[in-house]
Amino acid sequence: MTQHSLLQPTGPRIEPENVPAPPPASTPGGAVPPPGYLVPEDHTDAIQTALLDWFARHKRALPWRKRYTPYEVWISEVMLQQTQMERGVAYFRRWMERFPDVAALAAAPEEDVLHAWEGLGYYNRARNLHKAARRIMAQGGVFPDTPEGIRALPGIGPYTAAAIASIAFNIPVACVDANVERVISRLFDVDSPVKQEPAASAIRQWAQRLLPPGKAREHNQAMMELGALICGKKANCPQCPLERFCTARHLGIVHERPVPGRRAPIVPLTVASGVLFCRDKVFVQQRLNTGAWARLWEFPGGRVEADESPAEAIVREFREETGFAVRVRRSYGIIRHGYTTFRVTLHCFGLELEDESAAALRDNEGRPLPEVLTAATDCRWLAPEELTGIALPAAHRKLADRLFSKEQKYFLMLLEHNL
Q: Is the pTM value of this prediction over 0.70?
């Protein structure tokens, strides 16, 4: 296995820049610091030992820790980005049943991959996993074992490359995620926003310096585990193995670290979506090949304009996107769903065609087909139970569940009322 030459320390040790100096013997207010504090810059060996000992006793039994295969580490790291551990483990197990290795993932249709990913959001991650698996198979089927080779795969950024390199191959490169940022910012009292310079570089340097030789796999996982279980947003300092080395604990400012950056504003979106019924099936369309939910299936709809009601918007959207002339039969209420930078208020409607006999194009069962698709690449009439087999955006899945779950009792009731 080729090692990353730039990761090997050479020459005299360079102290990380922009990290505050150790505090003085007494705090600025004249109070005597609590006894037992050890300046972390001078005790990196002791920090490494304490952390690894703690991890050996308290690490969680996670499925990808059984064998540390590159494929399993890769999938787990991508899944766990902005996903809670318990949920991520459940998705990981289902994914491994469906795609047990790189070859199985590469051979699968994209629609199957997106469906397996549904509920995790950020669908480009699933698409990039699929692209990367196909590239690996095209290049001989062997997962790359260097940071440069891993980083070259589609969708893999610096953190994910470092995580795979260190955890799967034990290459000495530090991982810095939000958990590690929190631990280091408190340990060394980094007093500026951790996502911005100069703090970001200082944290990366400290993370690299803390790596013990030959223990990258255990150390990186231990740092992230500590941040997740002990040094969380509400820190459990008495249970922390690094408490006596923690400058923020020493100064009584744990709650002030890490220093947050400026948050992106949350943009509200008011949207209308319609479930078009025709006999015993509903209409769905597959989104275009670009955008946040590229190639996912959906109930057609779009933004509500300032001069129209949600009901007017859904009639207009159907006409613009499919050419279908529809009318609203009933409202299914509102579904709210939050994303990273916007919050959707989805007005949901049940629809019917104004004149089913007017359609020129029909499917093999006689249902009308749209003459145009301006916001989609494909469309289908599906029975309610078939909706579980396609990938839908989260808000649309909520709508489908609202209508067709519980053995489709609600759907049967709608049929009885001719909708």
A: yes
